[in-house]
Amino acid sequence: MTTRAATSGTPRWWADAAGAAAVVSLLVVTALWVANRGVQDTLGGGAGALSATGRLTGLLASDLLLLQVLLMARIPLVERAFGQDRLARWHRWTGFGSLHLMLAHIVLIVLGYAAAADANAFAELWDMVVDYPGMLLATAGTVLVVMVAVTSVRAARRRLRYESWHLLHLYAYLGVGLALPHQLWTGADFLVSPLSRVYWWTLYAMSAGAVLVYRLGLPVWRNARHRLTVSRVVPEGPGLTSVYLTGRHLDELPVRAGQFLQWRFLDGPGWTRSHPFSLSATPHTGVLRITVKDLGDGSARVATLAPGTRAFVEGPYGRLTGESYTGGPVLMLACGIGVTPLLALLGELPYGFREATLVYRSRSVADVAFRDELDWLARERGVRVVHLHGPRAGGGSWLPRDLSGPGDVAALRRIAPRIADSQVYVCGPDEWTAAVRAAARGAGVPAGRVHTEQFAW
User: Fold this and answer.
1) Domain harbouring 340, CATH code
2) Distances in Å between the alpha carbon of 416 and those of 89, 406, 419, 424, 439?
3) 19 pLDDT tier (thresholds 50, 70, 90)
4) Is 65 within a domain?
5) Residue that terminates a domain, selected from 177, 207, 222
6) Between the CA of residue 457 and those of 164, 168, 196, 293, 320, what are the distances in Å?
7) Whether residue 274 sits in one domain with residue 200
8) For 59-72, how does the pLDDT look when each residue is reduced to its tens digit (9 = 90+)?
9) What is the pTM of this model?
10) Are 97 and 242 part of one and the same domain?
């Protein structure tokens, strides 16, 4: 199921243009603040300096909040330029940056207003919340944004199920929607300049439009057109299940091997929660396949799906594709369920006979899946399959304990002597993937030839 939309390469200037636009937006905000006597008020000291600095931190916080929305609005141009794993990291960093600036804005503005009125800071804060237009909404929005930020801290994420975290994270949209309007009504930097109003209204419209079009409109349209339905469910191994899906006009769905989609199965309670599952077979006309490991409530229910169950998908997402592959040796390294997108890629990439190597890391021989497909790839396309079993070695190594003697880089060179000339594709848990990437770079693989996709949330 290969289409022009799915196979066209991503222009390199897309990433540069998107990054430049983000930087320019922050410069524009700062320039608007300067134009509204921000520097003079700051240099004047006293209450005016506190308020002026508070205005700047508030403007930057607002800009970053809207950029944060755009980062995860699923805009195809941005997704293809950066990949969702990188966007998720930037989204997190931008979120924490905007939160700190927002808190600084609140403190500085309250202190500045209190100093100007010679009033108690806590009394001034209360008056602002109760009396100023939009401030009650802004307070509620700030509370929601803080809640989302707290649950995004790594220690908190580890204590939450993915489904719970995902539901809480959706409140970020409501928080942004409530926190920002007060500046439309009371913000000096918004009210004083027509140029400022044009800029902010444009940024608001772009952010809201991106969410409506790409998070809501496009998925609804695609699902109405393609109507994905479960065809059959096949056990693949211990806790591992494959789901085959059919639909209409699937040759027009712009998905390719290595990508993943967000899946919802309309089979009863819990259907509203989406889960990221990669395609585990090369997409071809009429059929899609995903393979899911039982890791929680959402993934466990996949094994109980009945034929005929409708699926609702968002995507496709991910840059772990062959769009940059032009030939030559291929090395793929998979850990556990990470083999699924690489198996799909092995079926799609046009490598020569005996030019591809798959390193398949699993806990034991019993955990190896897709034996028949791996045998077919070895026989028909000359793929060399290297199995690595057993517990991992310590010290951040990607190797099993009993094979860690030579070291990560030496072992990689021994497995794939042509690694420095290879395109390297890696999929697995975060720490394991990072260790493989470091070993590949140490073995002489340029950064642009190491392709990874990480699904940690």
Assistant:
1) 3.40.50.80
2) 31, 14, 5, 10, 12
3) confident
4) yes
5) 222
6) 12, 13, 36, 17, 17
7) no
8) 898 888 888 888 87
9) 0.77
10) no
Tell me the H-state helices in 301-451.
Answer: 339-348, 371-381, 408-415, 430-442
Output the DSSP codes for 38-71. Answer: HHHHHHT-HHHHHHHHHHHHHHHHHHHHHHHHHH
The total of structural domains in the chain comes to 3
Which residues form the domain of 396? 330-453
Phi-psi region of 43 (alpha: psi -120 to 50; beta: other; left: phi over 0): alpha
| Residue 322 included in any domain | no
Q: CATH number of the domain that 282 lies in?
A: 2.40.30.10
Tokens of 24: 């320019």
* 419: in domain: yes
Are β-strands 260-265 and 311-317 bridged in parallel, bridged antiparallel, or unpaired? antiparallel
204 CA to centre of own chain: 22
State whether 160 and 236 are in the same domain: no
Strand extents, DSSP E, 223-376 = 229-237, 240-246, 260-265, 275-278, 288-293, 311-317, 330-335, 356-362
For residues 174 and 246, membership in a common domain is answered with no
What is the Cα–Cα distance from 207 to 176, expressed in whole angstroms?
11
The token duo for 202 is 């444009």
Cβ-proximal residues to 240 (8 Å cutoff; 6+ apart), any chain = 291, 292, 293, 294, 337, 369
User: 362 and 312 in one domain?
Assistant: no
* Tokens 């099993």 belong to residue: 400
Distant-in-sequence, close-in-space partners of 379: CB < 8 Å, separation ≥ 6: none
User: d(Cα 110, Cα 126) in Å, to the nearest integer?
Assistant: 10
Per-residue pLDDT tens digits for 101-116: 988 988 998 898 898 8
Residues 90 and 187 reside in one and the same domain = yes
Extract the tokens encoding 377.
């790839």
Q: Do residues 208 and 355 both lie within one domain?
A: no
pLDDT tens-digit map of 77-90: 777 777 777 777 77
**411 plus 345 within the same structural domain:** yes
